[in-house]
Amino acid sequence: MAENTKSNEFHKQQSKEEMKKQLITFALMIIFTILAFLIVGTEMMSKMVAIPLLLVLALIQVGFQFYYFMHLKDKGHGMAAVMIYGGVWAAFLTVMALTLVIWW
């Protein structure tokens, strides 16, 4: 009986920590989105600076989405992670190849 109580407390603590991490990640994503809207809406910087900054913010948000909200950090999601990272790699190679063809 005591072992069952300890197990329940352990799972409650794990769930609490996981929810805390997800809420922090969600708040950061909202902040990044607001920052992106401010960059575009206020036109406070040149396009040469704004576009790379927006792309970096977007990549950070994609990373948060994969890692936290699609649970790629959890055990048992190895094959899904391989497929997603393979797709990202294929997209990257495609964009690089098209860029090379256009600029050549």
Automatic annotation (TrEMBL):
Keywords per UniProt: Cell membrane, Membrane, Transmembrane, Transmembrane helix
Record has Transmembrane as a keyword: yes
Chief location category: membrane
Membrane-related topology note: Multi-pass membrane protein
One GO CC annotation: plasma membrane
Domain of life: Bacteria
The UniProt record lists the keyword Transmembrane: yes
Subcellular location: Cell membrane
A Pfam family it matches: COX4_pro
Residues that span the membrane, as ranges: 23-42, 48-70, 82-103
Protein name: Cytochrome c oxidase subunit 4B
Species name: Ornithinibacillus bavariensis
